[in-house]
Design goal:
Blueprint: E1 11-12, H1 15-35, E2 41-45, H2 51-67, E3 70-74, H3 82-93, E4 100-103, H4 113-119, H5 131-138, H6 150-161, E5 170-174, H7 181-190, E6 194-198, H8 205-209, E7 214-217, E8 235-238, E9 242-244, H9 247-253, H10 258-267, E10 270-272, H11 277-280, E11 285-286, H12 293-313
Parallel strand pairs: 1-11, 2-3, 2-4, 5-6, 5-7, 7-8, 8-11
Antiparallel strand pairs: 9-10
The structure holds guanine.
């Protein structure tokens, strides 16, 4: 049995181009808000010094600057207590010029993450992680009024702006995290897709995933989705961003790819998603890694910040 899409090469869903489009729209909205004397503002809290978190946060702050959004970065040390962080959140909640509060995850083990996320005022919860916002999403609150999690919101933007129909079609989401899998499943249901959520306990996973018109992988496991798990002609959304650091893995995921091996030799690592690159060949369209879903997450954070400002301050 061949799993190759025989008609033509799959279409690459360019997350960078879509993010650029969204950011241009946000820059216009920000300029308009500024002309009315209202500057959207985002406060970011980064606890400790996890290098990956530092990179993400730097990128978020930089994008604020590019789009005319005020930002401030708070960097308490790793040893900070839950109580101290709660005080910080309370103070940010009360500041009029701060529209969004983002606490970069993961937090140190001794910190009570749920308590902190619930302390953020729901109207400033630009991550969409507060139970109030999760509940509003679940109950179908109007999209223009709800602050929804950024990565799943970005995936919905990719599908919509790429003209990929969701209504009436089957979606399979692999992964049930509160940040991606669960909220995405809800968004797809709200958009009238027929949705299945799979996870580590799913039996006969490939049988389920082969039913997907839209297959989403959000598990954090490099190259997990293989060609036989994909229905020919499906759309694949790859949420994973995994750093591969062994030459054997590079060859396993990118056999014979000289350019990839050269880049690996130079940098000592390369990125691979949750989907094995060979599986993309079976699809009709897919998001690449890097340059797919990841590019949208920050754009949607900016969109939520401007939305939060508009909803709270007009
Ligand atoms: N860490 C990884 N992804 C995210 C995200 O979307 N928001 C926050 N706050 N932390 C993260």
């Amino acid at each position: 049995m061949s799993f190759t899409n025989t008609s033509e090469l799959p279409r690459i869903l360019d997350g960078i181009a879509i993010a650029a489009q969204i950011k241009a729209e946000i820059a216009e909205q920000t300029a308009s808000a500024r002309s009315r004397g209202k500057v959207p503002g985002l406060a970011v809290i980064l606890v400790g010094d996890v290098p990956a978190s530092q990179i993400y946060v730097r990128s978020k702050v930089k994008t604020c600057g590019e789009l005319g959004i005020y930002s401030e970065l708070h960097t308490p040390p790793e040893s900070t207590t839950t109580e101290e962080l709660l005080n910080m959140v309370t103070s940010l909640n009360s500041r009029e010029e701060i529209d969004g509060i983002l606490i970069q995850l993961p937090l140190p083990k001794h910190v009570d993450t749920s308590r902190l996320l619930e302390a953020i005022a729901p109207e400033k919860d630009v991550d969409g992680f507060h139970p109030i916002n999760a509940g509003r999403l679940l109950t179908g609150y109007p999209a223009e009024k709800v602050l929804a999690p950024c990565t799943p919101a970005g995936i919905m933007e990719i599908l919509q702006r790429s003209g990929i129909a969701v209504r009436g079609r089957r979606s399979v989401v692999i992964g049930r995290s509160n940040i991606v899998g669960k909220p995405l499943a809800v968004m797809l249901v709200n958009a009238s897709s027929t949705v299945t959520v799979c996870h580590s306990q799913t039996t006969d996973l490939a049988k389920v995933t082969r039913e997907a018109d839209i297959l989403v992988a959000a598990i954090g496991h490099p190259g997990f989705v293989t060609p036989e798990m994909v229905q020919p002609g499906a759309t694949i959304i790859d949420v994973g961003i995994n750093r591969v650091t062994s030459a054997e893995d590079v060859e396993r995921f990118f056999p014979g790819d000289q350019a990839r091996h050269a880049s690996f030799a130079k940098r000592g690592s390369t990125l691979v998603g949750d989907v094995h690159p060979a599986a993309f060949a079976v699809s009709a369209a897919y998001t690449p890694v890097p340059g797919g879903v990841g590019a949208l997450t920050i754009a949607m954070l900016m969109a939520n910040t401007v939305k939060a400002a508009r909803l709270r301050r007009g």
